[in-house]
Amino acid sequence: MSWKNNALTGEQQARLIEILNRRLADTIDLQLQSRQAYWNVKGPNFISLRELFDQVAKGGEEYADMIARRIVQLGGTAEGSAHTVAGRTSLDGYSLATASGSSHIDVLATALTHFGRHARYASEQATELQDDDTADIFNAVVVRWKSASLFVICIKTIYQEVRELGRAVRTIFLLRYIP
What we know:
Blueprint: H1 10-40, H2 46-73, H3 82-88, H4 101-128, H5 132-177
């Protein structure tokens, strides 16, 4: 049996449920994209990248549970089936051709950026609809998303710098040791 929030009008609840279900789709998509990276990452930093992708996926699962609970509390139905998520997500699709660790990081960093932007906007919408509980959920998602996003972006930057350093070392070696 669902619990309805009687402090909100039926119209407010319907709008909030729609917003929450859209963000639920994004959250499940982010979780699945993280798993896609986790399952398929290859390369020298395989273990550390799998741990990173696993943490993002677990965070996505936690966010999805929070959002789904709120939908039900408002009297709605949490719509998290694969078919619904595929049609409703606002995130870009994950290229199945992505193979290298740095490519997975790039794709995931982009997905996290879009996810965070939509979560922030959802928080603003919930505030406009005078639902502090839903706004608080999205604010918590945004705070945790920022942490994960910054970590992924740092890893991405490190990967780029290591690649550039490797090129520089090869160039120096070639200039110095090959006549």
